[in-house]
Write a structure and sequence with these properties.
- By secondary structure, the protein is an all-alpha fold.
- It has one domain.
- The chain has six helices and no strands.
- Helix 1 crosses helix 5.
- The longest helix has 25 residues.
């Protein structure tokens, strides 16, 4: 979420090229952040089709690759609702499993 907020889906895919993105999509689905999962899966399909997931060695190549892929539609969709969806789902999960994360002392 923070990677996408900082630099969009392209930056996320470049910086997290070694991540199992399918696992992230499944985690979003399990959390109930289905809209975010759909957005990420669609962006991933485009990236896999157009560009290998590797870190460009030069800034110029990074900018060129970013232009080639054009993930701004996914960024816009995420900014409109995805960020809020993830936060709501994480808050719901914390509320349901609070004892797993917080030990209250008196």
């Amino acid at each position: 979420m923070s990677e996408i907020n900082n630099g969009g889906h392209f930056q996320y895919f470049v910086n997290k090229a070694d991540f199992d993105h399918r696992e992230v999509i499944t985690a979003l689905q399990n959390l109930g952040a289905n809209q975010c999962a759909v957005i990420l899966e669609s962006a991933l399909r485009m990236v896999e089709f157009l560009l290998p997931l590797t870190f460009p060695q030069a800034a110029e190549r990074y900018l060129e690759a970013q232009e080639e892929v054009q993930l701004s539609e996914f960024d816009d969709a995420f900014y409109k609702s995805g960020d809020g969806e993830i936060m709501r789902r994480l808050e719901d999960y914390l509320a349901a499993h609070e004892a797993s994360f917080i030990e209250w002392t008196t």
